[in-house]
């Protein structure tokens, strides 16, 4: 048991580090070949923040742990909104002013409803996985297009530009990309296998291990990035990372088990977890969305979200 815990922690650290290095290299290479910072931020960086979840989902599905992969997708979205955003807002309230985010929030809500419709019958089918992954490619293309249409005064532009690495040679960028591509699946393999062993020892289902230990672990980079972002005044970027990560979790992370290992879902998915995810997404929408002017996610909002996370954990283990 102790050995599996050590392997899980090491796997999580390497997974997070390799995802960060992959994004670093890909962003630097994209900048060097002339891609705009906004396009890099909305596509490469946004997708990179979900890279741990995507790779873990693929590995779990390949190993036949479909419900672990589904739990990772739903649990990561729940954790991102309730825990990550909750703690971030308690540290410093977030001012929501980017028009880009006001486009992405309704998109997240629509995608959440599509995902729930697919899971409603208690089964994830292969064609549903194909549709979700197809939508993932479509959303990436739309984000790239939106990055070309964005208002020059949008605060997200400056915040994104500040995060793009500078002065990195193409050779160094390619080395980081290659290292990330090697270490991501390798670390995910050990992380998933150790998590399954821990779950069996503790008597937890595949779904719960995905909803809790794996979801929390793969969301730690978002927590660190969000807190660092708001402390630097990059509120829109911090919130944008969470929204983008949740969109990609529902399309790519949930789509992969549908494609690789379709089958019956744990009954708790459609009796409990997908509704918790939808409820938190609606809360995020209400706290963030304002058609006129700016909207602030306050410390009170953060406390509500954090209380929801704690309550959900009691529900899972009660």
UniProtKB/TrEMBL annotation:
GO CC, one annotated term: plasma membrane
Cellular compartments annotated: Membrane
Membrane topology of this protein: Multi-pass membrane protein
Keywords: Membrane, Transmembrane, Transmembrane helix
Highest taxon, organism lineage: Bacteria
Transmembrane segments: 6-26, 38-62, 74-95, 130-148, 168-188, 208-231, 243-262, 274-293, 300-317
Gene Ontology MF terms: calcium channel activity; calcium, potassium:sodium antiporter activity
Alphabetized InterPro entries for the sequence: K/Na/Ca-exchanger, NaCa_Exmemb, NCX_ion-bd_dom_sf
Signal peptide residue numbers: none
Domain (Sodium/calcium exchanger membrane region): residue spans on this chain: 5-143, 173-317
Major location category of this protein: membrane
GO biological process, one term: intracellular calcium ion homeostasis
NCBIfam families from the UniProt entry: calcium/sodium antiporter
Protein name: Calcium/sodium antiporter
Species the sequence originates in: Alteromonas genovensis
Organism placement in taxonomy: Bacteria, Pseudomonadati, Pseudomonadota, Gammaproteobacteria, Alteromonadales
